[in-house]
Amino acid sequence: xNEKEKELWTLQFHLAMVLIRIKxxxxxxxxxxxxxxxxxxxxxxxxxxxxxxxxxxxxxxxVYIELPTGQVSWHVPQHPxxxxxxxxxxxxxxxxxxxxxxVERNVQTPEGKRKRFA
Length: 118
Description:
The chain is of the alpha+beta class. The chain folds into two domains: about 5-75, no CATH class; about 80-118, no CATH class. Helix content is about 45%, strand content about 20%. The protein has three helices and five strands, in the order H-H-E-E-E-H-E-E. A three-stranded antiparallel beta sheet has the order 1-2-3, covered by helices on one side. Helix 1 (about 5-25) runs antiparallel to helix 2 (about 30-45). The protein is globular.
């Protein structure tokens, strides 16, 4: 197995393990949703078709992954907050600020508290 084949197999293995964990946590929605997002990233890295659609009658978005063995999907919750009308410029300024905070080890927690990492 050459390096490219090893890398492909490793990504496939990680995706397969995440998918099994999704199956094991199918009724633990918080865990399942986090794993579903992780699976989306891995599947994207592998070049599989991945996306989110809103069903005609569903109020919950549906995540889809096209595996070589067929399509799989999960309902995920909508984002809890509405769009705050940020512009593209504001979006990238926020990213730059977050990056700088991480580099400086001065990150704000999701609860809004500042945490200084040593």
